[in-house]
């Protein structure tokens, strides 16, 4: 195994010069830097990242914990995080909790053991002793997509209430009054806030939400399918359906198709999240689009500022959603 002493001999320089080149600390002339670089290339020398991290107390790694790696929403978010991390010389360790609190606790322990410089988390729930312990122990934590009920946390997410109200207001403008919702779980902010947006939009229109039109899912396809079936079984079927995430929307569309119903002739549908497949649906689906890539970028930028001990006055970045109207809703009298 090649050592720093070997490199110094090959480049005909001192060990201190090799160390300065490798660690990018202190001045080294261009010629000596070239000679050390050539020796590294010829020898295949690899920097011992663990030894360096023990010396500098920095690993140049970021822990990224997401709630559901199978959800395409997170693909674009992760790309935004990774692009900014790479730009600033950081590597990512990606963990997937599957919306499972026990897995979240496990990965928090793993990442602490890995001595990551910072963490970005899409938490499984809004309240967690594991998260509280993390915030007490680790100075560099940013929440993404969802936040927790802890003071002074830093977060980048979309305005869920605004996005849902846009969708429900659109359906109301089309004449719909019997509007049902398949909501996400009410123990995460993205779930509860989308439900709150639904309730607020109806009440502002002088309508009371109907209990039979409110279904609480878990952001998974199976729950979208099962709960859509329950709504379609009602004696007074809703004229419109709002589904609170893209994966549950797939389940709801399958249930509607199995019943032989036509969208939008028999029921209008709006989904939260705009995935590539939305334009390929039959008919193309009206959706609330989130700026997913920007969310990942903002979260990583906040974490970098936090790690650099910069003052962060705006601790929560609330991104604006966009209603993308296509052909899945119809006007009724």
From TrEMBL:
Domain HTH lacI-type: 2-56
PROSITE patterns: HTH_LACI_1, HTH_LACI_2
UniProt keyword Nucleotide-binding present: no
Keyword field contains Transcription: yes
Pfam family, one: LacI
Name used for this protein in its record: LacI family transcriptional regulator
Stretches that traverse the bilayer: none
Source organism, top-level taxon: Bacteria
Keyword field: DNA-binding, Repressor, Transcription, Transcription regulation
One GO MF term attached to the UniProt entry: DNA-binding transcription factor activity
């Amino acid at each position: 195994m090649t050592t720093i002493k070997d490199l110094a001999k090959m480049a005909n320089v001192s060990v201190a010069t090799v160390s300065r080149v490798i660690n990018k600390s202190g001045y080294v002339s261009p010629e000596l830097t070239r000679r050390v670089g050539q020796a590294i290339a010829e020898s295949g020398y690899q920097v011992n990242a663990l030894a360096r991290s023990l010396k500098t107390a920095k690993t140049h790694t970021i822990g990224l914990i997401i709630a559901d790696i199978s959800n395409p929403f997170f693909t674009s978010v992760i790309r935004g995080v990774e692009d900014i991390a790479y730009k600033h010389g950081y590597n990512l360790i990606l963990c997937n909790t599957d919306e499972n609190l026990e897995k979240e606790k496990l990965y928090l322990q793993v990442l602490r053991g890995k001595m990551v410089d910072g963490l970005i988390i899409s938490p499984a729930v809004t309240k967690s002793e594991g998260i509280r312990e993390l915030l007490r122990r680790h100075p560099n934590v940013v929440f993404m997509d969802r936040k927790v009920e802890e003071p002074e946390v830093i977060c980048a997410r979309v305005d869920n209430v605004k996005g849902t109200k846009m969708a429900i207001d659109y359906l109301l403008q089309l004449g719909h009054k019997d509007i049902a919702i398949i909501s996400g779980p009410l123990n995460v902010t993205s779930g509860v806030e989308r439900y709150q947006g639904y309730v607020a939009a109806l009440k502002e229109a002088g309508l009371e939400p109907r209990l039979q039109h409110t279904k609480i899912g878990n952001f998974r396809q199976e729950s979208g399918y099962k709960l859509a079936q329950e709504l379609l079984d009602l004696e007074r079927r809703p004229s419109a359906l709002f589904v609170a995430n893209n994966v549950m929307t797939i389940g709801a569309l399958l249930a509607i198709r199995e019943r032989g119903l036509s969208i939008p002739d028999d029921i209008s549908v709006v989904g939260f999240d705009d995935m590539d497949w939305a334009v390929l649906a039959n008919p193309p689906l009206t959706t609330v689009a989130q700026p997913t890539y920007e969310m990942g970028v903002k979260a990583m930028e906040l974490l970098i500022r936090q790690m650099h001990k910069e003052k962060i006055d705006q601790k929560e970045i609330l991104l604006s959603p966009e209603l993308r109207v296509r052909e899945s809703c119809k006007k009724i009298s």
